Structure formats: structure tokens, C-alpha cells
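Example record

The entry below shows one chain as it appears in the dataset: sequence first, then C-alpha cells.
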Amino acid sequence: MTAFFEHPSILFLALAVVPAALIFYLRFRKLRSTLMPLVSRADTAAIKPLSRILRIRSAFFALSWILLACAAAIPRWGNELVAIRQEGSSVVFLVDISRSMTVSDVAPSRLGFASGYALMLADRLENTRCGVVLVKGNAVLSIPLTSDHRALADLFSALSPAMLSAPGSALSRGISVALEAFPSNSSASRTIILLSDGEETSGSLDEAGRDLRDAGVQLIAVGIGTREGKDLNAFPSLDEPRIVTTVLRDDLLKKAVRLALHGSLYVNGTEAGSAQRVLSAILPAAGTEQKLVYSSKPVYRYSFFLFAALFCFCCGSLAGGIAWKKK
């Protein structure tokens, strides 16, 4: 129900037709039993079609009320692309600090590589407001959007899995927090730079990609790690270690990028020139020039229900006019 109506609780108003129909039926039945002994046989024959038309009229009025309640609940289904003109740029770095990022299949480690990579990008985004979200089993906005890049440099140089206590990796939760970091009334283009090995223990990157598409936000996923991967002790505090092989899940990152649209991009962080590709995807909107993007918005259908309610009301009124004319 909530997928089709913005305020589904208003639909309960439609149930008012049930007691209204019952009251009408009882009053009509009582009136008919009172009048029938007082009229002639000819008048009795004329009352039958009148009763039928009154029932039709009541049905039209009841349907009109139901449609009006549906319109008040603001029905919506389907999507349409809406053009949005953006000026300037804002970037949120989403850094994965889960334990899988501590392995050293890239030097000095995945997390250390991601830290240097993010710092290099931030240094070249001088006129861009940037923020940082850290994600592990949970996600937090560590630095809101700011022009003070020194705060970003201090945080990037101190990244550690110990910054968040929740175990696991919930990249989709991190994307949700990053989305909330952007001001709703800003005209700047919005970009999330995800630095991660793509391993996720909870949530759904696919669903997060669709959320980014609907919000008109660009996703740049930077894969950190190798496909061969490296062994990791999943439970280091236990007496019996559990060794697992953690690899770069670039397939999941690429799929999220495809779903996000809006010029979204995947790069392997270890490839030469990958940082320049990331900057090229962001910087064209960082100056005074404008950028036109398309955002997917739901289509509201309340006007259809309002028109149908008016039509049913007119039909009920017309049926009543015919009834009195015949009488």
C-alpha cells in the first residue's frame, strides 16, 4: 500500500461509505414500508424504478467518495526523468574501514592505499566542498561538507578499523549516510567517492545504487585490492583462528555504478591514470559552468482520481434528476 500512496492512512476515510450505505438502506426500507400501504397499485409500480435509480445514485456517490479518499492519499506509480540544472560541485568521500581493508595485497595495505588515494583527490579538489563518511558495520558522518581540506587530511592520515566498533561491512548504509550529508536545497552537483574492496556483509549495494539514481547523485567507486586477494583471520580474538580469503569484489562495485547512472564511474585504484579519470568526472562541474542531469521522480496520479470522483458525482446527480423527472 505504501508503494502506491504517499499518505496511506487517509485511505481509511473510504470506509465511511459502509456505515453511510447501511444507514441509507435502513432509512429507505423504513420509508418504503411506511408509504407502501398508502399508495395505489399504479403508484406502487412507479416506485420500483425510482428505487432502482436511487440505489444507482447512492452507488455513484459512494464510489465518488472512495475515489476522493484515494486522491487525498496522493497516489503515485511509475517514474519520469526530470531535468535538473546544477552549478558547482560537492563531494562526499565514503571510506570503507572494515577489517578486510587491513590486508596487504596492495601496499602498504588496502586502507593505507585508500587513505593516500583519497588525500591525493582532496588536494586537487581545492574549490570543492568535501565531506567524509566512514563505514564498517555501521556508518558515521565524520566530517560534514566543508571547504577546509586540512580536516580531511588529518582524518585520512589516521584511518583505522578501530574508529568504528560495529563488526562487518555495510556499504549500502554508508551510501545512505552520505546521501543525507548533501543539503537538499543545494544546486551543486553531488558526487559520492566510494573507496572499498566491495566486500559487504549486510545491506544491498544494488538497492543503494537505485537510491542514488533516484536522487540524481553520481557514484564513483574506486576498487581497492586485487582479485587474487589475501588471507585474513576473521576472528583474531579467538583461540582458534578462522582464516578467510578476502578479494576485490569489483563485480559488485561495477553493478552498483551501472544502477546509479548520472555519469557514475568505476575505476581500479591501482591502475595508472585512475585518479585523473575520477577528477575528470567531477571537475567539469566544479567551476561556474552549469551541468544538466536527469533525476528519476515518481509520477503523482491524484488528478486522475479527482477527475474520476467528479465524474461519478455528476453521474449520481444526473441519476437523481432523472428519478425526480420520472416521478
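Notes for this example: Residues 151 and 180 are 20 Å apart (CA to CA). The chain has nine helices and ten strands.
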